Amino acid sequence: MAKLTYDDFKNRLSIQDVLLDAGYTLNRRDGLRYPSFVRLDSEGRRIRGDKFIVTGNGLCCFQPPVQKNYNVISFIKEHPAFFSDYTPGMDKDRLVNLVCNRLLNNPIEDREAKIFRPERDLPPFRIGDYRMHHFEGSDRETQKPFYPYFKPRGINLSTQYAFHHDFVLAERTASNGQVYRNLSFPMTIPGGDGKIVGLEERGRRKLDGTSYKGMARGSNASEGLWLSSPADTKLEDAKRVFVFESAYDAMAFYQLLAGKDSVLDYKERKELSAGVFASTGGNPSVKQFEGLVKTAKQATFHLGFDMDEAGQQFAEQFKSVATAHGVDEKRVIREEISPGYKDFNEELLGSIAMKNHPLAKDNVPDAYQDYVDSFRKTSKDIPTVKALLHPTDEQVDLLPQDTRKLYARYDSLYEDAYEMRSSRLVAPDDKESAIQGAMEAHKDFRESLCKALAIKEDMAAMDIEPEDDGNDKKIQHDVDYTTGIDEQGNVEMEVETSNMEERRHYHR
Q1: 142 vs 116, which has greater pLDDT?
Q2: Fewest CB atoms within 10 A around its CB: which of 26, 80, 247, 368?
Q3: How are beta strands 300-303 and 332-334 bridged, if at all?
Q4: Phi, psi at 302, each rounded to 5°
């Protein structure tokens, strides 16, 4: 059978097929126009916050509130542990081929194992092959080219300043004249002479939400790591070392804790800045771990690996290496990512979206604070748009007078329509007219409330729903709870970089 390409997979497989194979279940409560998929626990109950919504064109999905679309290919690569075909350390392209061919009932031959000799097949890394563009702290013009790389990741300018000595834009011209340019994080060997032995590379984000990530050719990824400290602390002098799978995650972790809303006090923030942040650039090796523990002999190690199965195994592997080199187990700490997020960069993006949400506590107009607060379970909750548009009688009393009058008009027309529906003395046309009148009145209320709170009805598709609140009103209102989606399947949601909401994972 002919070998299938990525284009074949995207054309012949639905993102819904992949979500089902990953263990998600269709959430029928959201309807079928824009299907959503949720994960269930062992007792068949929904796991809160673990939800993907299929975009309008059916080609992608996203996980609210994070603004990131996944297609068939990128979903598998970003969530490898969801699939039975995955084994830790497996090449992600290989995994995509296994999963997609299995779903298409297209058998593939077992490939023969090949032994590569790096000294023959792969040229050594040479920094001279690259032209470097540096981020200069005093020159805004040198900083602008970095914007399209850091903006989609939520990394703000303050965090870029903190790490600016240890990232560059690296350009390499191929033999065919093609120029390759990536955000690059120089890698060095712990305890070595400081020579750059490779580059952790990240590309610009594409329309489908994916971006290139990898290593510069010839990089010594078995020993080299990206190492950086906002306070320029040397690894051998570090009291704390924070270890991640990518430099993006390291910077996101720092930003979550160094922002103005951080729960850390001044002394603790100084300690955070004095730490050394390390990235393995992907799947770590034993030599990378050994280099860290042998060099930072007095440090406490904070492990910020992803929360998937592979990340858990990396953490256990590090603990084994540390124990073998005499590191007390109390000096190895697992940094937990908040539920619903795979890594710290996803958590950062989620916290930005939450803080910039018009229903965040600081963003709600004073006249509506009591009304919106009545829907919150905690001060940081974001109420669902569906709930706000269908309040209880007690909550209606908290509305400003003008909006309350609009709801009272709807409520009166609704009661009239409800009584007329059960009467045999009213003509069908009159019943329909009464229902339409109630629907129009509710529309007036919704539009007034949405305008006052700077929300849209289509934001309701991104809600993570509470349990049924028992609202017994049965008239179906003319509400389209969908997201605004462009021709590429991108969700219409403005997300701006800002300081983070209060989240604390740093163990003192």
Answers
A1: 142
A2: 26
A3: parallel
A4: -110, 115
* Identity of the amino acid at 399: L
3-state secondary structure of 41: coil
Phi, psi of 242 (to 5 degrees): -105, 120
Cα–Cα separations (whole angstroms), residue 505 to 43, 249, 258, 404, 491 = 29, 13, 12, 42, 30
- Structure tokens, 74: 């990128």
* Spatial CA neighbour of 278 closest among 243, 310, 253: 243
Task: State whether the Cα torsion 189-193-195-201 is positive or negative.
Answer: positive
Digit-coded pLDDT (tens) for 205-251: 887 777 888 899 899 989 999 999 999 999 999 999 999 999 999 99
- How many whole angstroms from its chain centre is CA 36? 17
Cα separations in angstroms, 61 against 70, 72, 344: 5, 9, 20
CA 207 from centre of chain: 16
Query: Whole-prediction pTM value?
Result: 0.64
Whether the CB-CB separation of 491 and 485 falls below 8 Å is answered with: yes
Q: In whole angstroms, what is the distance from residue 161 CA to residue 149 CA?
A: 15
DSSP secondary structure letters along 74-115 = HHHHH-GGGSTT--TT--HHHHHHHHHHHHTT---PPPPP--
Helices 247-258 and 266-273, axial angle in degrees (round to 10): 160
Phi, psi (degrees; rounded to nearest 5) at 256:
-60, -30
The type of residue at 483 is: T
How much is the pLDDT for 106? 80
pLDDT of residue 487 exceeding 80: no
Residue 54 CB contacts under 8 Å (≥ 6 apart), including other chains: 15, 16, 19, 34, 35, 36, 37, 60, 61
Confidence at residue 456, expressed as pLDDT on a 0 to 100 scale:
86
Cα–Cα distance for residue pair 404/488, rounded to 1 Å: 40
Whole-number Å distance between alpha carbons of 442 and 22: 40
Write the DSSP assignment of 315-352 as a string of letters.
HHHHHHHHHHTT--GGGEEEPPPPTT-SSHHHHHHHHH
User: What gap in Å lies between CA 332 and CA 257, rounded to an integer?
Assistant: 19
Distance CA 443, CA 476 (A): 12
Residue 372 CA, chain-centre distance (Å), reads 26
Helix (H) or strand (E) holding 46, with range, is strand 46-54
Report H helices in 87-246. 92-103, 118-121, 140-143, 147-150, 157-163
Q: How far apart are CA 120 and CA 112, in angstroms?
A: 20
pLDDT bin (cut points 50, 70, 90) of residue 261 is confident
β-sheet with 240-244: strand ranges across: 226-228, 276-279, 240-244, 300-303, 332-334
Instruction: Specify the length of the chain in residues.
Output: 508
